[in-house]
Design brief:
about 450 residues; alpha/beta; 2 domains; two-stranded antiparallel ribbon; about 20% strand
Length: about 450
């Protein structure tokens, strides 16, 4: 099977073989990057059996550029190479991935099953039957009505803090495990781990701001344990600028993502969905600060994260009013775009309610929820998450009159610009917020 493909850089047309579907290739004429989509046909019955929806191919396709609505076709722009050609990639997105029973953008997260899952036996007809009058629908599984509501689960016990280990003249750190204080507890967040960073010296109560940071590097379908204890590039700059910092784990981590079985992936996915895509972990981190760090001003707690952790930071801010602001570096703001090809993989049907999860875990679905200021950073030549996706989300936030500062790096790729420019700019932004200054968008 072959698919005709056109390069939007030079206009050259060629046929892409089936082995290239879902891949990024170089145009044989000009060398520009071209993303080869999967054919727009209905997936096999065993794939993504979202029984609240019609098959994907039966949906009408709107031939428009989607930036402020839920169109089925989204044109994603990305800058490619030193020539700066604008490559437009069509990514097929299912507009109502989670079903029509919940208005996610209004602030009510789509319902997920307790422990992840969707109702069984429901169809597009909405009556639980496949159309036959004598068919009896399977009873629905119990659903957790608010996946981000931490009141569903008790706050875990927090241990007393120990001694700090000095990292430099200006910073110190200690490691905290919740597990020993919560033995036998299987609730989300009960087995979390923290690295607690603090500026050296004595600090008066409520005298410090604090930044909470989750680990990056996931596929947005699982959480993450904390990385090696010798990696501090995404935390130490805040501490050396005078902030406390909490680095915390997300439920559903995998020891070695490069050597993992499908069963391990599914177990991690289940844990991650139970934690509200990590939102419960973020809320517990805030609870921990309020319970164990009297030096921190509870009105000056910010979330921050890079890439998948940037997605988490924005999602947390959409559901956590106790944050003073949120920082996101190169965040995939819509997991449905980031994982578009995943929906067509044979193993995708193993992830229960995958379409629903990708919708209710998308920060872009909660534009109206944001009440605290946002700092968003992205490099134009990012080769992991297209700059155009973030730019479109920022425009949505502005149209909704949200206070957002969008800082742009012209080059550097996915990560290095955050270290060199993003974090220093974010620290300046937090300092400005604390002084009551209005923060406008920055363009180079």
């Amino acid at each position: 099977m072959q698919m005709p493909v056109a390069c939007f850089g030079c206009g050259n047309r060629f046929a892409a073989g089936q082995h290239l579907f879902g891949q990024r290739v170089a145009c044989p004429a000009c060398g520009a990057a071209i993303d080869i989509p999967f054919p727009t046909v209905a997936p096999p019955a065993q794939q993504i059996a979202d029984q609240d929806e019609e098959p994907l191919a039966s949906k009408p396709q709107k031939q428009i550029v989607a930036t402020n609505d839920d169109s089925n076709l989204v044109l994603v722009g990305s800058l490619v190479g030193g020539g700066g050609f604008l490559i437009i990639m069509m990514v097929l997105i299912y507009a109502n991935v989670g079903g029509n029973d919940t208005n996610v953008s209004s602030g009510s997260p789509a319902a997920v099953a307790s422990g992840s899952g969707a109702e069984s036996g429901s169809t597009a007809d909405g009556d639980g039957s496949p159309g036959g009058e004598n068919t009896v629908a399977s009873p629905p599984r119990p659903r957790q009505s608010h996946p981000y509501d931490t009141s569903v689960f008790p706050t875990p016990n927090f241990p007393e803090l120990g001694e700090y280990r000095r990292l430099s003249d200006r910073s110190q750190v200690q490691f905290v495990q919740l597990g020993p204080s919560n033995q036998g507890n299987t609730d989300p967040g009960s087995q979390m781990a923290f690295r607690v960073y603090m500026p050296t010296g004595d600090h008066d109560p409520q005298s410090l701001g604090c930044v909470i940071v989750a680990p990056a590097g996931t596929d947005l379908l699982r959480g993450n344990a904390m990385d090696n204890d010798d990696y501090h590039k995404e935390t130490l700059p805040y501490v050396e600028a005078g902030y406390a910092c909490i680095f915390y784990s997300l439920d559903g981590g995998i020891d070695d993502p490069n050597r993992v079985t499908l069963a391990e992936k599914l177990a991690a996915y289940q844990q991650f969905t139970r934690s509200g895509a990590g939102v419960i972990n973020g809320r517990i981190a805030i609870d921990f600060i309020r319970a164990r760090l009297p030096q921190v001003d509870s009105q000056r707690i910010y979330s921050a994260g890079h890439s998948s952790a940037g997605t988490h930071s924005l999602l947390l801010a959409a559901h956590e009013p106790r944050l003073a602001g949120a920082i996101a570096y190169a965040p995939p703001t819509d997991p449905r775009l980031f994982l578009a090809s995943t929906l067509y993989r044979p193993t995708s049907s193993s992830y229960e309610d995958l379409r629903g999860f990708l919708k209710w875990s998308a920060p872009v679905e909660y534009i109206d929820n944001y009440s605290s200021p946002l700092f968003i950073f992205h490099a134009r030549d990012d080769n992991v998450e297209p700059f155009a996706n973030t730019e479109a989300t920022v425009e949505k936030l502005k149209l909704a009159n949200k206070l957002v500062k969008f800082v742009i790096a012209e080059r550097g790729g996915h990560k290095e610009p955050m270290i060199e420019k993003g974090i220093p700019e974010a620290i300046t932004w937090m300092n400005q917020l604390q002084k009551g200054e209005i923060v406008e968008e920055i363009r180079p």
